[in-house]
Amino acid sequence: MEKQFAGEVAIVTGSDSGIGQGIAVEFGRQGAAVLIHYLEDKDGATATLRQIEEAGGKGAIVQADITLPDDVERIFRVCDEKLGMATILVNSAGVDASGKKIEDLSVEEFQKAISTNLVGPFMTCRLFVTRLKRAKKRGRIINISSVHQDIPRAGAIDYDCSKGGLRNLTTTLALELAPDKINVNGIAPGMILTPMNQQAIDDPKVLEKQVQSIPWKRAGEPWEVARLAVYLASKDSEYVTGGTFVIDGGLMLNLGQGA
Predict the structure, then answer these.
(1) Are 28 and 34 in contact (CB under 8 A)?
(2) What are the residue ranges spanned by the domains of the chain?
(3) Could you tell me if 222 and 194 are in contact, meaning their C-beta atoms sit under 8 angstroms apart?
(4) Distances in Å between the alpha carbon of 82 and those of 34, 41, 62, 86, 177?
(5) For residue range 48-102, what is the model confidence (pLDDT) as tens digits?
(6) For residue 2, what is the DSSP state?
(7) C-alpha distances in angstroms, 177 versus 69, 124, 164, 168, 244?
(8) Does 3.40.50.300 match the CATH number of domain 9-193+221-250?
(9) Which residues are catalytic?
(10) Given Cys at both, which of 73, 84, 86, 245 links 11, Cβ 3.0 to 4.6 Å?
(11) Is the pLDDT of residue 258 over 80?
(12) Which tens digits make up the pLDDT trace of 142-199?
């Protein structure tokens, strides 16, 4: 079977675990050379690379803090040196909500979420786009947001604000880059079984309770988000830009039911 990303190079931030790992592995299976990024979990990044190589793919690993401009530049430099110029960028790295209400939330904690979930993707997108335009190449950007860009939660003002901003980064970039035929789309997952939902993974009773608000009555898996990312990075989505693709088992449809 022909691998649809043969000859392509993809950067996937936060690909040491969860959704990012699932996307990196699936891209590798589809023929892309994948730059695997991690902040702290080197073992997780190594596991991602191993899965890609076992599927016959190619990858490389880079450690970087996406909130630091010099580190973001290093991501692209390592990609160039080890794999070649990237034409696909997936921003998956992120931090979860603090769980604190505003009176207990420090400015530093709020800034951490904004820096990681919004400023980081801004910097990776900026460098990615600058390089594509200089080389006169087309490309794809996929930003991993959350249903919480639209669904507020008490105790998640840091996370919700960052993801709402990421949605608007996606739509604004789609407008700016349409003349250059650079597609920009977002994926908004609901409850996915990743380390952000570790308690539900470890305790079946917690999982059963949490999925009751999901019409599909189960949580999603990283590979399901990865398959959607594959579509958005493929030639099949050439006319798709500026969209947010919700993958949540109907969770957002259930809001307000029974009120």
Answers:
(1) yes
(2) 9-193+221-250
(3) yes
(4) 10, 20, 10, 11, 27
(5) 999 999 999 999 999 999 999 999 999 999 999 999 999 999 999 999 999 999 9
(6) -
(7) 22, 15, 20, 14, 16
(8) no
(9) 159
(10) 86
(11) no
(12) 999 999 999 999 999 999 999 999 999 999 999 999 999 999 999 999 999 998 888 8
Q: Is the dihedral of CA 211, 216, 218, 221 positive or negative?
A: negative
Residues 204-222, mean pLDDT to the nearest whole number: 92
pLDDT for residue 201: 86
Q: Could you tell me the two tokens for 204?
A: 């079946």
CA distance 112 to 190: 22
Contact call for residues 220 and 249 (beta carbons, < 8 A) = yes
Q: Which of 180, 145, 141 is nearest to 162 (CA)?
A: 145
Sequence-ordered list of residues with C-beta below 8 angstroms from that of 98, at least 6 positions apart, any chain: 105, 109, 113, 155, 156, 158, 159
**Does pTM surpass 0.85?**
yes
Structure token pair of residue 84? 């070649």
Say if residue 199 is exposed, middle or buried (CB neighbours under 10 Å; 0-12, 13-18, 19+): exposed
pLDDT tops 90 at residue 234: yes
Give the list of residues 6+ apart from residue 63 with CB closer than 8 angstroms, or none: 37, 38, 39, 42, 45
What is the spatial distance between Cα 206 and Cα 134, in angstroms, rounded to a whole number?
A: 50
